[in-house]
Design brief:
The chain is α+β, with helices and mostly antiparallel strands. It has a 5-stranded mixed beta sheet, covered by helices on one side. A two-stranded antiparallel ribbon has the order 4-5. The chain is built from 9 helices and 7 strands. The chain folds into 2 domains: about 35 residues; about 180 residues, Glutaredoxin (3-Layer(aba) Sandwich). About 60% of the residues lie in helices and about 10% in strands. InterPro entries: Thioredoxin-like_fold (IPR012336), Thioredoxin-like_sf (IPR036249), Thioredoxin_domain (IPR013766).
Length: about 230
């Protein structure tokens, strides 16, 4: 009885070539898919019409923050990080702000509505700053977050007046479905990008995961990443 022969050398080589080809093609497809997903993600993070606190041509380095105006951590970030970062990197980076009001903060949506209503009159940045600069006046009650909509609304009206807004138009826009739709779009985009808490920041599409324990540590860490991106 003849001995059983194994596969010929030609068969082995042919199989190896096919395997390599599959791996290469598969790798190309994976990389292409990742690139496409990344581009889609970046577009979702910074869609047309999103508010910018600073903007540079080409958006070479883009920082996107999803925030909740009644979030104490967001207020701390604003005071210790983003307010000065906005000034120090003006003209160098594009700084985008998106809404992500959390259910645990009863005045987060009214505040976001106030900011978006101010944007209708070209005063988004003014309302953004007023909401955080006066955080204790409307957002807190003692040691807890406030739920006093009437008090907060009165404060928002003051900020609108100080910014030179048409107050009646501002009030109409605050209650408009169009303004709520903008907030809903931001929340949907944030959720799709994996946002589940605030503040959440993305630098050039990559989520920023701070390791520092203090606001000062996080500030240094974020600035280092921005500087590296600018130098790249």
């Amino acid at each position: 009885m003849a001995a059983r022969r194994g596969p010929s050398l030609n068969v082995i080589l042919t199989g190896a070539v096919v395997l390599v080809a599959v791996l290469v093609i598969g790798g190309v497809l994976v990389f292409n898919r990742s690139d496409e997903d990344g581009a889609a993600s970046n577009a979702a993070l910074f869609p047309a019409g999103a508010h910018t606190l600073s903007r540079v041509e080409g958006d070479k380095v883009t920082l996107v923050e999803f925030l909740d105006f009644q979030c104490p951590a967001c207020s701390s970030y604003y005071t210790g990080i983003t307010k000065k970062l906005e000034q120090d990197y003006r003209g160098r980076i594009t700084f985008v702000v998106r809404n992500f009001p959390l259910e645990m903060h009863p005045l987060a949506v009214p505040a976001a509505r106030a900011a978006e209503a101010a944007a209708k009159q070209g005063k988004y940045a003014e309302m953004y700053h007023a909401l955080y600069d006066n955080f204790d006046q409307w957002a807190v009650a003692g040691q807890s977050t406030s739920s006093d909509v009437r008090r907060a609304t009165a404060e928002f009206d003051k900020y609108a007046t100080a910014a030179g807004l048409d107050l009646e138009r501002f009030r109409t826009d605050v209650a408009s479905p169009e303004v709520q739709a903008i907030i809903d779009r931001d929340v949907a985009d944030g959720t799709k990008a994996g946002v589940n808490s605030t503040p959440t920041l993305f630098l050039d599409g990559e989520e920023f995961h701070p390791t520092g324990r203090t606001v000062a540590d996080i500030d240094r860490e974020l600035r280092a990443k921005i500087d590296a991106a600018l130098a790249g």
